[in-house]
Amino acid sequence: MSKLETKNELELQKQELIAALKACGAVRYGDFTLASGKKSKYYIDIKKASTDPKTLKLIARQAALRIREMDVNTIAGVELGGVPLATAVSMETELPLLIVRKAMKDYGTKSRFVGDIKPDDRLVMLEDVTTSGGSVKDAIEVVRETGAKIKYVISVVDREEGAKENLKEAGAELVPLVSASDLLK
């Protein structure tokens, strides 16, 4: 496939995902407070998308296409929003899954991880929505403490409010499936 054909295919996929996100009710308007503490006139509820099998499958396929171009061997997701996304992508790519907890549990193995992680692993992190990139940046640091590498973060929607730049500073590339400006047109 030529670069132009690939670019056209990605644009068609993006439009298909935008339609699916709107159809499942993932885009809402009103007054909202985001995880970052910022106020917003719109809210992107990817949990609506990740609980809709058709939309989740679409997200998984589109993420998997991008992952084929990446040198990774593990799919990771941060609880809670990233877990269904990473699980679906893991099933689509047949790469192992790693779930990163936001905090160490205080019972059992007391681990921050569900799944195996080795120092030579190369992970891609799945995120539902990125605003500043703060929560995924924390997860990247925890993963890197094990010696494993994270070079890419795939976000279903990037709100275009600093995540790309903040993740770049942390040595990771943000790969959004859709940007907020495209979704809100």
TrEMBL record:
Name of the protein described by the UniProt record: Orotate phosphoribosyltransferase
Ranges for domain Phosphoribosyltransferase: 53-167
Cofactor(s) named in the record: Mg(2+)
Annotated positions binding 5-phospho-alpha-D-ribose 1-diphosphate: 101-102, 105, 127-135
Self-association state and partner proteins as the record states: Homodimer.
Alphabetical list of NCBIfam families matching this protein: pyrE
Statement: the UniProt record of this protein carries the keyword Disulfide bond: no
Enzyme class name: transferase
EC number: 2.4.2.10
Reaction(s) the record says it catalyses: orotidine 5'-phosphate + diphosphate = orotate + 5-phospho-alpha-D-ribose 1-diphosphate
Pathways involved: Pyrimidine metabolism; UMP biosynthesis via de novo pathway; UMP from orotate: step 1/2
GO molecular function, one term: orotate phosphoribosyltransferase activity
Record function comment: Catalyzes the transfer of a ribosyl phosphate group from 5-phosphoribose 1-diphosphate to orotate, leading to the formation of orotidine monophosphate (OMP).
Lineage: Archaea, Methanobacteriati, Methanobacteriota, Stenosarchaea group, Methanomicrobia
